[in-house]
Structure formats: C-alpha cells, structure tokens
Amino acid sequence: MSIVICEDIKNEADSLQHLVKKYFEEINCPIQIIVYNNGDNFLKDYEAGAIDDVNVVFLDIYMPGTNGVAVAKKVREINNDVIIIFTTISKEYGMDAYSVYALQYLVKPVKYPELKSVLKKCTERFADSLRFIEVLSDRLLVKIYLKDIMYIECFNTAIHIHTTKEVIKTFLPLSEMEKKLNDKMFLRTQRSFIVNMRYIDDMTAESFILRNGKSIPIRRHERIKIKQIFREYLSELALKQ
Residue ranges of the domains in the chain? Predict the structure, then answer.
C-alpha cells in the first residue's frame, strides 16, 4: 500500500507520517509513505507517472499554490479508486468533499483515534488489492498481486501470466492456477484462458476485449453463462459507486 501526504507545514507532515506508520506497524502491514510540501509537486509526479500504485492521499486544503480541493479534482481525473482524505483547520470546503468523493475530513492537529478509524476503512477497502499469489518462474519464487494480473494463458504445460508490467511464465495446470487465485474477479472463459474481469473493456459475440486491446475468446457452449457472470460483476460494481 502506498500513501501520499501533502502538507506544507513540516511538523504537521511529520506528525501525520508518524501516526500513519504507527497504525500500519500495529497491523503488521508494509507501506510506502511519500511526503510532499505542496500539491503542485505531487501532481507533477503523479501526472507524469513518476509515482504509481497510490492507494491513499492525505491533502491539506490550505496549501501554497494549488489548494487541496483542486488537487483532489485532478487526482480524480486520473484515478477514481484512490482514497482522498482532507486534513484542514476548517470544514468550510465540506461540500467540495462530495464532488471528489473524499472519504473523510480530519481536523488538524490530527489525533490518533480519529486517524486510526479512517485508516481502518482504507485497509478494508484495499484488502483485495493486497492479495497475492506466489509461483515458481525460472527457479525463483515470484510474488504477484492479484490486482495486477490481466489474464492468464495456457500453452500445453506452461502458463503465461500477463500482468500490467510483465509476462511471468510458470508450469502449472490451469485448473490448479484457478484454485490458487480463488477470487471471483477471475473468470475462466475458455480451456486455455482465465481473465481478470476488472480489465475487460468490451464484449463481442465471441470474446472479451481487454483495455490493452487483447481479445480473450469465450467458449461457445457456455457463452450465455459466462457473459451473464460478467454482467453480474458490472452490476455489483455499479452498486458500489
């Protein structure tokens, strides 16, 4: 889990960083914390892709340059899944929190009980994104986060795991891989394919089209059933919005 703190007052940034570290040490969860003293520098790195996999952003509303609410709107243009938490001395911008789907306001100075409650919500929301499997590839044990797997393709005894960053080759029956994944996000579409439904962008009569343009075939005799599973996934997703 990666967390960004945008706070222009150093002692408040240090205090918030200390409290965030304290919580994640208590639950024994590794994290990365990146601190910025203004929103413009954060946006510059975020928009350029210099930092990725950001899960939570703490934004001070009153910062030099671009204020926290404006930063949050830019973040939302890039990623709808990032959790935004405002830190402020005033709740004057309360209505703006709704427009950027902020999780909560924390009034400064931030107290640990309030922060702990917010971070508990964050970890619950991102619990699935922290799940991973381990496979042997080139005699090395490789850790793969489920959220990064786009699809899996089988070639005889070899399995190619296509992630957002690379392709990992391992040797395992696809049925065993299916058990290892153990996640309803993954859908067996055909004898040789398993797809992560979060990466499906479109559906044709015979296949799913992924965000990267890859076409994943759907087995003919179960097309109605498989497509219905995907439609139900989309319905559940819409209810969470």
Answer: 2-128, 132-240
